[in-house]
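Entry for adenosine-5'-diphosphate complex. Fields follow.
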Amino acid sequence: MNSSTLDRFSEKVLQIVRANGIGIFSLSAADNRLYPQTMRNGSAHIDIEALDPIDMEDETEFASFAWRALNHEVHQVAEEPVSLSGHELPPPVMILPIIWSREPIEEGEDTLRRAVGLMLLWNKRDKDRFDADDHTLADTLSAQAAALLVEEQLAEFEDIQAAFATVPIGLMLVNETERIVVANQASRSILGQTSLTGKRISEIDYQNQLVKILDYVRAGRTVQSSFISPNGVNFIANGQSTDDDQIILAFSNSPINQDAEELVGQVAHELRTPLTVIQGNLQTVEALFEGELQEGDGELINEFVGTCLLQASRMYRMIDETLNLSRIHVGKELELEVREFDLIDAVDQVLLELEDRLNRHNLVVEMPEHLVMEGDRGKIISIVDNYLKNAAKYADPGTTITLSLVPKNGSVAISVRDEGIGIPEDSLARIGREAGFRTDVSKNQAGGIGLGMVYTRRVTEAHGGRMDIESELGVGSVFTSTLPLVHTPTSS
Ligand code: ADP
């Protein structure tokens, strides 16, 4: 702990109270021991690193003074020298509790009050006892010491939060009033919340599953229950109570993942299409090289190689998307590689890549000639790609698919309209929010495992944008991602 503030504070106390020695200890709620934070005897600083923490169960004179001071919130005075970890403290020795208290913030809440440490003052200058004024002064100073100690404890708490943040499983600390005290990044993504600290569990709970776990833990039962996050991902949640009646909730990825096999199958299937195109093109190039090269072959080769590169970049994106989906699955945030790019170029690239998928539909594209925006180019391409692929999948050949890009008020609305099977109204809210969700009407359609829209929504929201779906059964659907043109990093 950085104690230079406490060191300076203790010097000030010595001048005010006119004593020669001071010691400030913090009380650890975890093991009920006193940890020395600063100590000086006359002009000499005592090396606190060499001092052991004080256990109040110890049978030393000092431990019993400390115990009484803290438990009865009273000053103790020793008229004889007090021995502390091998140091003789010359009398008189005043031992006073450091109490931290806070007025209620909310209605119905009690004033918070807890002992956070102990202050010792010894060897009053020019006198052999502390008088009433010294006690009053010491009280005021101990309230200041409380603020300093709590501030230092909070700094340590931030370190705990930093450690929490790096853990890939979701962790939350919940207090007695069911309020979240700390939550890490993974728990925010699992629960689909941008912030959790300070919220009540009931505010963010999904189908009361977490409240149930809290009830179980309070009833003294160890629980491990299967839990479905708002994103539809299976998690195992554990609850454990702490010594001070708080509850730690931990979520980890469910070991049983029915989607995994299906996902691998789907990805392999999807990767085969561009790979077949690449293979075919390379074979043609090979054949050209095998014979005598004719005039114009250079151009042809260029074209074939160009197609290969395009399909390779499509494969790259598909692999990237799969990797990102698995990151989301374990509760990690999406990482964006933000840069400035021309959205129209990017869309042209998707249209070329998807030629084989879209050639049986009547494709209408409405967009400006150039539109520069900031964002993760590859991921924004995935948005357009997913919307177009779905339109082609869920609308009959021969119908019209309209892709439009409309810039407006610093944003761009990317929409794909189809004349397909449509989506029942009560399913609209679940698309892109629950992994694996498919509408009943789409289930007889080939392929599809209900992950593309989850990814699309995440990518849209990670860019500070919004995804909207309008649809009418049997008539068609419009999927829209509205994205800001200038990227502002979100803080979570
Ligand atoms: P999938 O791989 O199943 O298509 P998505 O996440 O892309 O997964 O979509 C989730 C579900 O949303 C689909 O299974 C389908 O039920 C519905 N859906 C998505 N796009 C459309 C669309 N254009 N028309 C009708 N239903 C759609």
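NOTE: The pocket of adenosine-5'-diphosphate is lined by residues 386, 390-391, 394, 418, 420-423, 431, 438-439, 442, 448-454, 477 (CB under 6 Å).
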